[in-house]
Specification:
The complex is a heterodimer of chains A (about 500) and B (about 300).
Chain A lengths: L1 H15 L9 E6 L14 H10 L4 E3 L5 E3 L2 E6 L5 E6 L13 H12 L12 E8 L2 E6 L6 H6 L8 H7 L13 E7 L2 E6 L12 E6 L3 H9 L5 E3 L6 H6 L3 E16 L4 H4 L1 H10 L2 H8 L4 E3 L21 H10 L6 E8 L2 H15 L3 E8 L1 H10 L10 E8 L5 H9 L17 H9 L6 H18 L2 E14 L2 E2 L2 E2 L5 E2 L4 E2 L2
Parallel strand pairs in A: 1-10, 1-11, 14-15, 14-16
Antiparallel strand pairs in A: 2-3, 4-5, 5-7, 6-7, 8-9, 9-10, 11-17, 12-16, 12-17, 13-17, 18-21, 19-20
Helix pairs in contact in A: 9-11, 10-12, 15-16
Chain B lengths: L1 H28 L4 H6 L5 H11 L5 H13 L13 H36 L4 H15 L2 H15 L16 H27 L2 H8 L4 H29 L3 H6 L5 H11 L2 H29 L7
Helix pairs in contact in B: 1-13, 5-6, 5-8, 5-10, 6-8, 7-8, 8-10, 9-10, 10-13, 12-13
Classes of the chains: A alpha+beta (about 500), B mainly alpha (about 300).
Chain lengths: ~500, ~300
């Protein structure tokens, strides 16, 4: 026994001999997600895309409010019919491997996307050809008018990789990204990605030496890492632990509106839900504030249009007040005073399940009743996508949906969800909402690249859709991140990504 | 004995073949389409179809199975659908952290579990018994998740003795997760040791030994303890098999880059090649550990012989 005890004591001592953390300009970012790829043309998740944006840059980019700004392009022009977009490129920029950024580099990247073999190839579907005018000018020629094209070029899926790296690594570039960005890819081991300072960055000097992105799936552990200084930035900061974090003098909380809108998909092909009055009744019967407070920990704001405020061309609509009496009156008018049965579908993460349970309780007030079917995310979308518009015996369902328009533009916030052409399996109009006028307005937003004309089309579109209540409108998520006080210049972006190029660490 | 060992090793192969068929079928029984999950929520049909063809998911199930097994026999476990990296490489990267954690957790649990169990048995009915069992019942009842978070709060946030989470190769990072992992298993081991010990103590050869005047200490350690260890070793082997699969809860709480979390992430996106390889690996663990356990029996009790 004595030997065993001695062994135990030694073991404990060995374990306690933790090396001290030295002061340096290295940042650890503790995230919930794990990276999937660092090949921008083959990435669909926001987290991988955000890391790529620290290493790579596109012709255009987004600022911290998701407004499109020129990046590797100096300026751009387009024709009246929104079929030709010409970009003047910045001169003298070099990739991390020393090769120059120029029109040829753009051509190689766009040709790779247009090859059609990658997950983001669909971005370039509208493009007929890319013409290299001279060493610093490129022109995209489109098949048909596509007014949202500037946002496509700003999308993380259109980031520019070094052509030399593409030749060297082929598809293995997903583990060896080489770009023009503020940080150089250092290593990717297991789930952890490390990037280091680009000393020759063409814009402002980078002020930190390295950033390590480490997945920490459990939110309590993430906060604990921040509190002990083992991480300097955590996202997402769990809403239920806000009080603990706020009480800690070493921590700053950052809250920003996202572009993630949550709504209830109403199956408009099913008789009662096909009646606009019933759908309006549902919107009056939902106590959005209670759902935000209880299911979402207060980290959301009530939706006030079919797209979130941070999307380009958003127009605020009047709210649907919580008014059960009015909801009942509408149900009566529609001849459904006695109500009907539905199935509630929801993905199973606990906040979504809780929100659906509250919806279920609230709709019981107007006699819409039914069981909840919760399932993991993969099964949930599988189920919604299996429905077809012409099924004769479709299930009357209400599903907890969510959407984040990664282009930052109204088009991708509306068309995939509400256009007639977007019925599954093509895109994500899971409730089969179809309206001729709305389809026309969606199209009107695309035939010109002129912001004023597009603004007008999308304003009309939002005005038209909102009262028809294709969805049970819920809320727009608020992003919450937390960082240590001595870290500055790093913040979450509305799409759930982040910006680190201005990161600065005080001593 | 060596011959027996190799014979048993060869017998593992048919087990793995059956497992491979089951694994291939089961992962495809899960609802949800990997191509859809890879393509992302806002993908169009063309992208999903293109991926499905690329991943070979448009082919019939038997074709997929035989292609897969053909590759496995050539030593190619395929590529992860999620990261497009070789599955072998992905699993190797995570095998070491899980192994380290399992060995450390197992060490704690055997030391503490057997000790508490033996104490409870020797002092059956006395205060030492109650104390030991109170500790072990608490260990079983306390969810790992909760225990882990408490340990983080106390030892990392307030006392600052250990890092909170993550594994970058430092020993200090192993303390909290292995303790958390070991606590639950230690409790199971303690209960098991206690009952095995008590069973043995009621055997006639113990009474005989006592009757012929063998000192109590010798009765306990020489006669009872050795024999009580046999079921305990079986249990330890079984538990170790589970631990080698990676504890999902502990790896999640402590951001441990191991197999358990990897498995859960693979399930979430329906990463078929990864899931199939992991199921094969887990089955191999169990069959192999069973074999080792049988070997250990012989060391504890020379009367056990192999045919």
């Amino acid at each position: 026994m004595a030997a065993k005890r001695l062994f135990l004591v030694l073991l404990c001592l060995a374990m306690m001999a933790a090396p001290a953390f030295g002061a340096s300009k290295d940042i650890i970012y503790a995230s919930e997600s794990t990276p999937k790829s660092l090949d921008p043309h083959d990435t669909t998740d926001t987290y991988s895309g955000a890391i790529e944006k620290a290493i790579l840059e596109g012709l255009m980019g987004f600022d911290k409010d998701l407004k499109v700004v020129p990046l590797l392009a100096e300026s751009y022009t387009f024709n009246n019919t929104a079929t030709e977009f010409t970009f003047k490129l910045r001169k003298g920029i070099k990739f991390h491997d020393g090769t120059p950024f120029n029109a040829e580099a753009v051509r190689v990247n766009i040709a790779r996307l247009m090859g059609g073999k990658l997950k983001r190839s669909s971005l370039m579907k509208p493009v007929k050809e890319l013409a290299v005018i001279d060493d610093s000018t490129v022109k995209f020629v489109l098949n048909e008018p596509f007014g949202a094209f500037i946002n496509t070029v700003a999308h993380p899926g259109a980031l520019i990789l070094s052509p030399a790296a593409l030749t060297k690594y082929g598809d293995e570039v997903s583990k060896n990204p080489v770009g023009t960005g503020p940080f150089i890819f250092a290593e990717w081991v297991s789930d952890t990605v490390k990037i280091k300072k680009n000393p020759n960055y063409w814009r402002a000097a980078v002020k930190v030496d390295s950033i390590t992105f480490r997945p920490v799936p459990e939110s309590g552990s993430r906060l604990a890492m921040l509190r002990t200084g083992q991480a300097q930035y955590i996202y997402p900061m769990p809403a239920e632990l806000l009080k603990v974090a706020q009480a800690d003098p070493k921590i700053d909380i950052i809250e920003r509106p996202s572009i993630v809108e949550r709504y209830l998909v109403l199956n408009t092909r099913h008789a009662p839900l096909g009646d606009a009055r019933v759908r309006q009744a549902i919107n009056y019967a939902l106590d959005k504030q209670a759902i935000i407070r209880i299911a979402w920990g207060g980290a959301a704001t009530e939706a006030d249009s079919i797209i979130p405020p941070n999307l380009q061309f958003y127009k605020k609509q009047s709210a649907w007040p919580y008014d059960v009496a009015k909801a009942k009156a509408l149900m009566k008018e529609a001849g459904h005073e006695k109500g009907f049965k539905v199935v509630f579908l929801t993905p199973n993460p606990s906040n979504r399940l809780r929100a659906t349970e509250m919806v279920q309780q609230q709709l019981k007030e107007i006699n819409i009743t039914g069981e909840i079917q919760s399932m993991d995310v993969a099964s949930f979308y599988n189920k919604l996508e299996a429905h077809r518009a012409d099924d004769s015996n479709q299930m009357p369902f209400i599903a907890f949906g969510g959407w984040s328009s990664s282009t930052g533009d109204a088009d991708w916030g509306i068309r995939p969800l509400l256009a007639t052409q977007a019925f599954p399996p093509a895109l994500s109009n899971f409730g089969f909402f179809s309206d001729k006028k709305v389809d026309e307005l969606i199209q009107a937003g695309l035939v010109s690249a002129d912001p004023a004309a597009r603004r007008e089309a999308y304003a009309k579109c939002q005005d038209a859709v909102w009262p028809m209540a294709p969805w049970g409108y819920l809320f727009v998520d608020t992003l919450i991140a937390a960082k240590s006080k001595n870290l500055k210049g790093i913040y979450p972006l509305p799409d759930g990504g982040f910006s680190v190029e201005n990161a600065e660490l005080a001593d | 004995m060596l011959k027996y060992f190799f014979k048993r090793c060869v017998a593992i192969v048919p087990v793995l073949v059956v497992v491979s068929i089951l694994a291939c079928g089961f992962v495809r029984l899960l609802p949800g389409d990997p191509a859809r999950m890879m393509a992302g929520q806002d993908a169009d049909t063309a992208t999903i179809e293109m991926l499905r063809a690329q991943l070979g998911l448009d082919r019939s199930l038997p074709v997929q199975y035989f292609t897969y097994m053909g590759n496995v026999l050539r030593g190619d476990l395929g590529k992860s659908l999620k990261t497009k990296r070789p599955v072998f490489q992905e699993i190797s990267l995570r095998y070491f952290p899980t192994m380290v954690l399992a060995v450390a957790g197992m060490t704690w649990s055997v030391l503490f579990g057997v000790f508490f169990g033996a104490v409870a048995a020797i002092y059956n009915g006395k205060w030492q018994d109650y104390a030991a069992m109170l500790i072990s019942v608490s260990g079983i009842s306390m969810p790992q998740f909760w225990l882990g978070l408490l340990a983080i709060q106390l030892f990392a946030v307030y006392l600052g003795w250990f890092p909170v989470a993550g594994f970058t190769g430092k020993w200090s990072e192993l303390a909290l997760p292995s303790f958390t992992l070991g606590a639950t298993v230690a409790a199971v081991m303690a209960r098991f040791t206690l009952s095995a010990f008590l069973d043995v103590l009621s055997e006639e050869y113990i009474s005989t030994a006592r009757a012929k005047g063998v000192p109590e200490r010798r009765v306990m350690w020489k006669h009872a303890f050795r024999n009580a260890l046999i079921p305990v070793v079986t249990m330890a082997g079984l538990q170790f098999g589970f631990l080698l699969g990676g504890s999902v809860v502990v790896e999640t709480v402590f951001a441990w880059p191991g197999l358990g979390r990897f498995m859960i992430e693979a399930v979430a996106v329906r990463d078929y090649p990864v899931l199939q390889a992991l199921l094969l690996l887990y089955s191999f663990h169990f069959v192999f550990i069973n074999l080792l356990v049988d070997m250990v029996y012989a060391m504890i009790n020379p009367e056990i012989r192999f045919e």
